[in-house]
Design goal:
Elements: H1 3-10, E1 23-26, E2 42-45, H2 49-57, E3 61-63, E4 72-76, H3 81-93, E5 99-104, H4 109-117, E6 123-128, E7 131-136, E8 149-150, E9 156-157, H5 169-177, E10 185-189, H6 195-200, E11 208-213, H7 216-225, E12 231-235, E13 247-252, E14 257-258, E15 261-262, H8 264-277, E16 278-289, H9 295-301, E17 302-310, E18 314-322
Length: 338
């Protein structure tokens, strides 16, 4: 990662000076190096479970939100512009010293730099490895704070969450394609702000729905959107989470991007996790972009799979009866002849 390279350049004599006190780092991602910063003074602010867990393993102090005043803040620019502005506003409000912004060109650092220059005097920028880093201390950014948004159909979302502006078309197609009977126990892997879980709870016979979501902000919205007592909420990495008891059904619209880069292996990891969450005769109901080649893996992990609905863009797949790895049968030990 290149955050450390730009920070190193900024911290050379005559450049950025870090004041004494705690330093908040908003949104660093797994694999980012924070070595230029004094580790004992860094507080990582992250709502993404894999990133949060990664930095905790590295020994950093980690929190879900900025809940004190910091001597300096670093904002690692996210992909969503509304979320980027929100983080900058949060950092500015919680910081007595410099607010440092770092990001790649593909994540919109150029436009954020232009907008910040209209509000305050900016130092830098430091350009390196297709990205920029700059910092400022003044200005007014309160209007950039993005409160939860209420959609016309009654759902609440937050900036930066998947499908924050409207119900995702693929998820809507999956919801329309689900059978009347899903079984008693349903798991929603990558539940987001709760749309599919809300729809699953409308089906007769459902007694429990587990919502598993890595984005804490999205999960907080799900708690608002899904108030049914049959719902259980889990802040976790859906690809590694395991239920207390296996389920009758898993529903999911798995992601296949990391930042802006397509990564179908992420969707495959969701499929593997789903197979492990299901009962012997359980069923996976999933939707995916039509071009994604998930069928070979589904054939390896399930006894049967078929496309049950679709459009030119999406396909809804039913996969049933997960194939369990067989444990070798231990042969009885023969007694030796005397």
């Amino acid at each position: 990662m290149t955050l450390d390279l730009r920070l190193d350049l900024a911290l050379t004599p005559g450049g950025l000076t870090l004041p004494e006190g705690k330093i908040a780092v908003f949104g660093p991602r797994e694999g980012h190096y924070l070595e230029p910063l004094p580790k004992e003074r860094v507080v990582v602010v992250s709502t993404q479970f894999p990133d949060h867990a990664y930095f905790q393993r590295q020994g950093f102090d980690c929190v879900l939100r900025a809940d004190e005043i910091y001597a300096a803040s670093v904002v690692v620019l996210p992909r969503a512009k509304a979320l980027a502005r929100d983080w900058i506003a949060q950092a500015h409000a919680a910081t007595n010293g410099p607010v440092i912004i770092d990001g790649q060109k593909e994540e919109g650092i150029e436009s954020i730099l232009r907008e910040c220059r209209k509000r305050t005097e900016v130092s830098g920028p430091i350009s390196k490895a297709h990205g920029k880093l700059f910092w400022f201390t003044g200005g007014a950014f309160d209007d950039w704070i993005a409160p939860p948004a209420d959609m016309p159909d009654g759902f609440t979302t937050a900036p930066g969450t998947f499908s924050a502006d409207a119900v995702d078309a693929a998820s809507a197609l999956l919801a329309q394609s689900l059978p009347t009977s899903l079984g008693a126990h349903v798991i929603d892997l990558g539940a987001g702000w709760g749309y599919l879980s809300a729809k699953a709870l409308e089906h007769p016979g459902v007694t429990q729905v587990d919502l598993v979501e890595a984005d804490h902000a999205a999960l907080e919205c799900a708690r608002i959107n899904v108030t049914d007592p049959r719902a259980r909420f889990h802040w976790a990495d859906a690809t590694a989470w395991t239920p207390e008891t296996r389920a009758d059904a898993v529903i999911m619209n798995p992601p296949f991007h990391i930042a802006r880069k397509a990564n179908p292996e992420l969707g495959r990891a969701f499929i593997r996790a789903a197979a492990g969450c299901l009962k012997t005769k359980g069923t996976l109901w999933m939707v995916a972009n039509r071009h994604l080649p998930y069928e070979p893996l589904l054939g390896e992990l399930f006894t049967q799979h078929e496309e049950i609905a679709g459009t030119g863009s999406f396909k809804v797949i039913r996969a049933a009866v997960p194939i369990r790895a067989k444990t070798p049968t231990r042969q009885p030990r023969r007694s030796r002849a005397r």
